[in-house]
Every structure is written in structure tokens, then in C-alpha cells.
Amino acid sequence: MLRFLTAGESHGESLVAILEGLPAGLEIRSREIDAELARRQKGAGRGKRMEIESDRVEILTGLRAGRTLGSPLTLRIRNKDWENWKEAMAAEGSGAESRPVTSPRPGHVDLPGGIKFGHKDFRNVLERASARETAARVAVGAVAKALLSRFGVLVASQVLAIGGSRTSSVELVGGSQMNQLEISPVRTLDPTAEKEMLSLIEEASAEGETLGGIFEVRAFHVPVGLGSHVHWDRRLDGDIARSVMSIPGIKGVQIGIGFKGAALPGSQVHDAIFHDRLRGFYRETNRAGGVEGGVSNGETLVVSAAMKPIPTLMKPLPSVHFISKRKAEAAVERSDITAVPAAAVIGEAMVALILACHMCEKFGGDSMDEMERNFRGYLDYVKGL
Prior knowledge:
The protein has 10 helices and 17 strands. Helix content is 31%, strand content 20%.
């Protein structure tokens, strides 16, 4: 099984991730991970933190001569802002008395997390809950993408909406669109919507507001048969939904047409099945989003997610001082106006990780050579049907 763990605080010395279960012989390059980290930092509406950090990965274990050994892969991303927080975030000493947060921010985990763990200073909660942790996930996701690429699987994303501005129906199919998305400051293929989104972000900035939105992740060339209908915790769609929902700020996840299908008759929801000698079994529509009954069906995987507006507001909402119980304004931490484009990149990482996990489970092998042999044999079986 492929699994990962992250550690570190937003203003701590560094973020760390350990990825276990990688087959030996997978080629990994730190520059490719750095490129993914840079994508996460882009996008209109990002805050001052992105001007401070310039994320770079250090590969500490599990790699020799650019190839995985089969042992755990350890990645570290140093926080440049640590220099400004050494006293407040020191592992030892009395610095914890500085920069306390005692007025919880509505929409954040400050209050419930503080109550759960018995903290009166909510910095002990928000430092780990911060979306800064997702940099480690993107680094691990870059490794997962490297594995998937060996099997022809490509994962990409686009922003569908920011605030009240929604794109027209431009289907993401890959190719030259990939460059267009990387150039767009809001990661969209619709130039008209891009202008509207940028205008909304400017207005929100002037008003001390924040904006949410919707993004979509697609995975191309996913083989049929990943996941399982046999047990609830082996379903591919269940794993994807959980992983994407775990991204900070995400409040809704759907696969395919999702919620829209609840209002339609079955004949307009399900995808008819066809067969020919060259393509084998296929569907002319993909309303299921590439998954049926918890199992990938060979069509493009389509996942979309709704992100709420960032809860940290420059004009803070009413709150209560945790100690005195008196009315107070919520604490204000450095934050973004919107992070939907960045969330789309993080969504790619999480989807890639789940697909890589299921690929390793389905095709097994302690080395990439063994896994690829198993994969080729499976494709031969599918083509013969």
C-alpha cells in the first residue's frame, strides 16, 4: 500500500513528508517537485506569504542516483518565514508567550480545535491547521504524478468559478490547454470569465473580503478496474472524495455530473455502453465521471470541488475572547483573498496520490519493472475482451 504522512507547522522551521510503499526504480527529480510547488504558489488573490516563500524540496531518504530504493521517501520543505518566528515557534524556551491568539476566527478550527486539545492559545491549533501544510502534499503528489506518468496517466485541473463568476462550458481535454491554464492568473480556459474573476478579486481586496469558488480535476487514461465494489473502504470514488474534501476550505466534492444528476431521469444520467474492435468497450458520454460502483470504468476521471471563502477576513467578524468571554473581533492572520487556483493544484496532488495508491494495489510489484510487467499483462487481457 502507498501511504504518506506530513508534519510541520505553518511558521515552524520546515514541513516534512514521508511517502511509504513506492516501488524501487522510479525516477524522481527534485526540480520536477519544485515545479509543482511553484504552481501551488501562483494565482491572483494570493497573500504576502507567497512573496516570502520560494518552496524547494530536499529529498532526505529513499532515493539514490535519482531512483527510489523501495524504502520510505522523506521530503523536506523549509519555511523561509521561520526566521521571523524563531522565538514564537521554538520547540523549547518561553517564546510561546509571544504572538498568542485568543479570539477564535469564525470558519476556522481555532475554537473547536482549542477545546478538543485543551489549548487556550489558538496558535497551537492554527499553525498546523494552516493550508501551508498542503505544500507537503503537493510535493508528495508530484512523486505520485511521476509514477502515474510511467503508465500514461495525466492529471490536470482548471478553475470553474470564483465568487459569482463562472466559466462557460470549456471541456478540459489536455494538449495545448495545459499551457493556457498555466498562463492564466486564475487557472481558467475562458478569457471572458478570467476578466470577471480578476475584477471580483480586486473588489474583494478593496472591501477586506474573501472569495471561494469551484475547481475541477481530470485524470486522463485511467485504466479500467481501479478500486473495488466489494468493500466500502476500497471504493475509488470514496477514496477520492475523502482526499479532496481533506483540503482546507473544501466543503463539497462531486464526481461526474454529481448533484446535477439528482434532478434528472436515469436515461439522462447513465452512460450507454458500446463496443468496437479497435476501442473495445467504451461510452460516448461520461456523466459518471469515470467511476461506476466504486471502480474506474476506463473513461476520464472527472472530480470537482467547492471551496468556501477563506475565513480570515481583514474586516473580522465578531468573536469572543476565550479567556474573558467578552465580545471581541476575530484574530487577523496574514491570508489570501482567494486560493481557488492553488486549491486546484492541491486537488491534482490528492487525486494523483489516490490513483497512484490504487495503481500500486492493483498491479503490485516491489519494483517499477515488475509493476509495468503486470500492467502490460493486464492491458493485453482487457484488449482481448
